[in-house]
Design a protein that fits this description.
The complex is a heterodimer of chains A (442) and B (106).
Chain A: H1 3-63, H2 68-78, E1 85-94, E2 99-107, H3 116-128, E3 135-137, E4 142-151, E5 154-161, H4 163-213, H5 228-275, E6 280-282, H6 288-293, E7 296-303, H7 306-323, H8 330-348, E8 351-359, E9 362-369, H9 379-384, H10 398-404, E10 407-413, E11 416-424, H11 428-441
Parallel strand pairs in A: 6-10
Antiparallel strand pairs in A: 1-2, 1-5, 3-4, 4-5, 7-8, 8-9, 9-11, 10-11
Helix pairs in contact in A: 1-2, 1-4, 4-5, 7-8, 8-10
Chain B: E1 2-8, E2 12-21, H1 26-34, E3 42-53, H2 55-70, E4 74-80, H3 82-90, H4 93-97, E5 102-104
Parallel strand pairs in B: 2-3, 3-4, 4-5
Antiparallel strand pairs in B: 1-2
Helix pairs in contact in B: 1-2
The chains are: A alpha+beta (442), B alpha/beta (106).
Chain lengths: 442, 106
């Protein structure tokens, strides 16, 4: 990755985080200013109320006695601004009891009426800011109170309509809440933008990798931006293309090899067929079903342990005794059965023997297993090697089987081995013996 | 099934086999040979009662014969039934081990 791209990348993230920081700082300043502004409004109200009380006190002391008409006029004059005077009290000090006594009171209506909702919000607000006790709710509305001395024995108390002030406060609070919400939303959006920018391409990459790993080598992960991740995805795509190509090459190679093996197998099969004059037939696994399913099934024996070899012989013997009682090569056939069954136990672990009658006098013995199969290269020595060497397992008894039976079918692959052989049961010998006996009797 | 009966005097041991000699019984056959006393220098294997033998059985027979010969013990197989001898012959065992050591049942 070049330095410029890296720098640009750093800048992008830096900018985003600086943005968030600036918004945060600005919003904090804004909140502080808001609070200060509300504080100023509040002290302004208190100051104003106090001023009104002072003015009235000055006015009353100037006339030296209470003149209601003039006081009314003064009140109107003083109440012209937003904070209307709603109550004036003139109090004089009782020297005996040392308590203030009400001498004159004048009440006016509130200028502004608060709705119930506003009242509720104001109640919450006053419970939050309990120190501001100079403004309170008197049953009709919110008021601010100010007092001033006329002389040593007389005092004037003024109550001012603070509903407007409260409304202003509520409005300010609502605006502040909206502002805060806006800031939070902006920050979330900004942050999400970072996440999307960073994680969305990663998600694409991961899901794309999954698709490819499932075997779809034609899939390419889309490159949205040519940043470092984009470059990575690009080279990953190149790699997948390369992999696909080499796999295709390999598959081609395998198919060629397979073809050649098929050819070799066919030649092998033909040679063996010719050499054995059709007695030994090699078949592929897919051609096997015909050989295995031919004729009528007479018996089936599971072969999994050493004792099953004896069982296979017993079943064979019983069938021969039942169908061809005059057959005189039973012992040799039993050896063939024993050899084939022993091979299953030894090399495959388990399998089955099936006896099928494929013609009037022909029985097929089929031995199937799912073992590791055998090497075709060993076949000639196994089948054609006559006699017995001192090595116990060599030959696997195949030469015995081959020499005895009329037809031997063999199929072997890594999925298992099938050995099937046909035996013709002729009663010729028996019949000729009978004929000879008849002749002798004559 | 294979039954092995052993009888012996000072120098000759006789193993009388009866039953089938195949993959399920070869182990028993091999183990029975272990019981032969060390003083013996000749072992007779009586095959009169053997009903069946296959290449596995013959393989173990050859193994046992070679093992005993290794201990300088002479091995004689006697009273071999006709059908069993045919199998021996088929695999060329008398040829391999010496025809003189295989006595057919008359």
């Amino acid at each position: 990755m070049s330095k410029a791209v890296y720098k640009e990348k750093i800048n992008k993230y830096f900018k985003t985080y600086v943005n968030i920081l600036v918004i945060l700082v600005l919003s904090i300043i804004l909140i502080i200013q808001f609070v200060l502004y509300l504080e100023i409004l509040f002290s302004d109200l208190i100051y104003d109320t106090q001023l009104k009380a002072r003015n009235l006190a000055n006015f009353i002391s100037g006339y030296n006695r209470l003149d209601e008409e003039k006081l009314k006029y003064e009140m109107q004059f003083l109440g012209k601004d937003s904070y209307k005077i709603v109550k004036i009290q003139l109090l004089s000090l009782d020297k005996k009891t040392n308590r203030w006594k009400e001498e004159y009171v004048k009440e006016e209506k509130f200028n502004i009426e608060l709705s119930n909702a506003e009242k509720r919000i104001a109640a919450i607000g006053s419970s939050l800011f309990q120190k501001k006790q100079q403004v309170w709710y008197n049953g009709e509305g919110f008021i601010a109170e100010g007092t001033a001395l006329v002389d040593a024995g007389t005092r004037v108390a003024v109550e001012v309509d603070a509903n407007g002030f409260i409304r202003q406060q509520i409005l300010a609070a609502v605006i502040l809440a909206l502002l805060m919400t806006g800031i939070v939303i902006t920050m979330i959006l900004e942050y999400r933008l970072v996440i999307i920018r960073l994680y969305k391409p990663l998600d694409n990459l991961i899901s794309g990798m999954k698709i490819i790993s499932r075997g779809n080598m034609n899939y390419r992960i889309p490159v949205v931006k040519l940043d470092e991740l984009g470059r990575f995805i690009e080279s990953f795509n190149d790699m997948v293309a390369e992999l696909k190509k080499s796999r295709e090459d390999l598959e081609h190679e395998i198919s060629v090899t397979k073809e050649q093996r098929e050819k070799v197998f066919k030649i092998y099969k033909d040679v063996i067929f010719a050499v054995t004059q059709g007695k030994l037939i090699l078949v592929r696994k897919d051609e096997l079903s015909f050989c295995v399913d031919e004729g009528e099934k007479m018996a089936e024996v599971k072969i999994a342990k050493n004792e099953d070899v004896g069982q296979a012989r017993l079943v064979t013997k019983q069938l021969i005794n039942g169908f061809f009682p005059q057959y005189n090569k039973t012992q040799k056939l039993l050896i063939c059965i024993s050899e084939a069954a022993t091979n299953i136990v030894r090399h495959a672990g388990s399998g089955t023997m099936t006896i099928r009658r494929i013609a009037e006098n022909t029985i097929r013995y089929v031995f199937e297993d799912q073992g590791p199969g055998m090497d075709f290269n060993d076949l000639p020595s196994m089948v054609f090697y006559k006699g017995f060497s001192s090595k116990v397992s060599l030959g696997c008894g195949f030469s015995i089987i081959y020499n005895f039976v009329d037809k031997l079918i063999l199929s072997t692959s890594k999925y298992g081995t099938t050995v099937a052989f046909d035996v013709k049961f002729s009663n010729e010998q028996y019949e000729s013996e009978c004929a000879a006996a008849a002749l002798l009797q004559d | 099934m294979l039954e092995v009966a052993i009888s012996h005097n000072d120098t000759v041991s006789c193993l009388t086999l009866s039953g089938e000699l195949d993959i399920s019984t070869v182990e028993k056959f091999r183990l029975s040979v272990e019981n032969i006393p060390e003083t013996v220098n000749e072992v007779h294997l009586d095959f009169y009662g053997v009903e069946f033998v296959d290449s596995t059985g013959i393989g173990s027979l050859v193994q046992v014969m070679n093992q005993l010969r290794g201990q300088d013990i002479k091995v004689l197989i006697k009273r071999i039934p006709k059908e069993i001898f045919e199998v021996f012959d088929l695999l060329g065992i008398p040829e391999l081990m010496g025809e003189a050591y295989f006595k057919r049942l008359n």
